[in-house]
Input
Amino acid sequence: ALQCGIVGLPNVGKSTLFNCLSNAKAQSANFPFCTIEPNVGVITVPDHRLVQLEKLVNPQRVVPTTVEIVDIAGLVKGASKGEGLGNKFLANIRETDAIIHVLRCFEDENVTHVDGTIDPVRDKDVIDMELQLKDLETVESRISKTEKMAKTSKDPDAKRLLDVLLKYKDALESGKSARVVELSDQEKQIAKELYLLTNKPIMYVCNVDESAVVSGNQHVAAVKEAVKNENARVLVIAAQTEAEIAELETFEERQMFLEDLGLKESGVSKLIRLAYELLELKTFFTAGEKEVRAWTFPAGALAPQAAGVIHTDFEKGFIRAEVIKYNDFTNLGSEQACKEAGKIHVEGKEYEVQDGDVMHFRFNV
Ligand code: GDP
Output
């Protein structure tokens, strides 16, 4: 399964956020290094369409889809040189598919900051620099291998790879992340295989006090300005408050608390949806009387691959897919009504599954 990693300096609110996100209670304390082992949380993706389908189909059970989030152990200055839990931390990041970078944008004298003052842009730069230094190491070692190949074999692929590596080297040496380097589509394909840390899709989470959750504050404004060229999402969240909300018993109580803050939806549920987008994941549904269920597939997947998400046999023996558009299903109210209206589309192996499709697969066993 694809994973998002939560990173950030110690005491910025990573564990607090992770706790809100997952049922697994990671310990959270005013103490750097309290999250030593990477904690993996399997998190339900909120989806209003599932609620609609449940109402119409009235199934025995409803199964939402999930995304995995890992809370990665504390990073400090010098990690790329192996300080703190540096090497372990970087290895954990390498395994994730996207990054959620938590930045401390709240003031609180009782919570120690590793550098004494609140400055999320500086904090971001500290982490970026460690990741960039590690990437530079990767890039330089690949350059020395590739240079020889490019010379001796006259292999055009080696030459192309070398070009990409040199572009990255330039950027990394001047304190930029790999993700800001402009590449052609062909070069992007080559770049993928380098698995650079600073090339992963990223979302910045500004952790604020509840008073700033709607309007932001000067720290949030500074972060937005600093990342405007990165093609990154910025989400403002009050992790501490969300943790308190999560403790409330009923949905109504939680909703009331959110509305008092001026929010329609919890920050956590926004974060999960954004993480899902960051990972380029989409959802299709199956809607039978036994079970209404959401399934995750990678954007661009063809019908057999999507069928394979349910069962490998569905992919191997794939014959065809019967597809109802979500809007047709909810407008007409049932599969039978869709059938009568000619709204069931029969699709073959080349069909690119769309977000929201309600699917039936036909296959040989
Ligand atoms: P981590 O080291 O990044 O995982 O940070 P933690 O989640 O353990 O948080 C460190 C401390 O900051 C804890 O005492 C939290 O209760 C506190 N904290 C986290 N988020 C907030 C926030 O939004 N506002 C305030 N005032 N405190 C927070």
